[in-house]
Amino acid sequence: MAKTINLEIFKRFFRAEQTGGVLLLICVAISLLIANTSAKDSFIRFLETQVGFGPLNYSILAWINDALMAIFFLLVGLEIKRELIEGELSSVKSAALPVIAALGGMLVPAVIYSLLNQGTETAGGWGIPMATDIAFALAIMAMLGKNVPPSLKIFLAALAIVDDLGAILVIAIFYTNQIHFEYLAMAAGILLLLGLLNYFGVKRLIFYLIPGVLLWYCIHHSGIHATIAGVLLAFTIPTNETDIESPLEKLEHALTTPVNYLIMPGFALANTNITFQKEMLTGLVSPLGLGIIIGLFAGKTIGVSLFSWLAVKLKWAELPTGAGWKHLLGLGMLAGIGFTMSIFIALLSFNGVTHVAEAKFAILTASVLSGIVGYVFLRVVKKV
Q1: Would you say residue 9 has pLDDT above 70?
Q2: CA-to-CA separations, 192 to 67, 84, 206, 208, in angstroms, rounded
């Protein structure tokens, strides 16, 4: 029996992503404006304000980056699981091209960055240019309208989801410091409980969300970045292969609006507060800046296009319906928009304020360049 894809879920997700991308842009502009006015110090003090009690007493910035971003990763995890079960990643044939393209889009930028930063104190930031920002990329794809085939939009969503999964694995494996195994053991126990709930057919979301909060707490204290809890929780949420809305799709629908209209804009507002200095311009041509800019703009384009070409030539996959190689080239350019995830990895990569600021500025520059060039290119190419 053929699987039935719930297209309405995807349509709602896509509409929210494109609108959320516009809101992200506005929050980026507001954050940059605040960081370069007299309001800068007040804003920083606000972000450093402690909120909570006992072991849950963190700054507002920490709550945004560790707790709210875990909800973002929960949504990403739900998207990934849905695509594996009933979407673009549900079969080897349909999943092959976006998976292989995403792999190329992660490896080539990381190699470029590593070569440019080899032996420097910024060598650890190789994960920064690996990520694609799904919200911005889909927002620009939406602006292209009928200039691109509909299959290309679904392909980009699938590629970005695989890319997000890769970024999550990179964070878990390479950007984690000391491990506290007692908390990790408790997290494993909670995860086992969640798996058993799924196995025995428990459908009510509340029985997953409450243990999910405890899972976040244990992972947060284990030394692994707390946002990983969101993805682990997502993979335990029940779903199905029919067009009947599952618990997974209900939760995804419930989270899409707050994530795209509150959490992601809040993250952008809190983390894009770059105070521009003359030194930043020279930072763009430093190994750090060049690694990020060339990695995101050129590396993503080369990686996505080259690996896609190899997959098709080796008959491992097929091009999306109605799309040609020029479309894949333009899509590779849009994949260079690495804003949210790239900034997130930059925050984990460096402790020094200067390096973080330079990385943010380079990410912003590369993302703007990738977005503009990709949009113009796909607008000119239209349908082949």
Answers
A1: no
A2: 22, 21, 17, 12
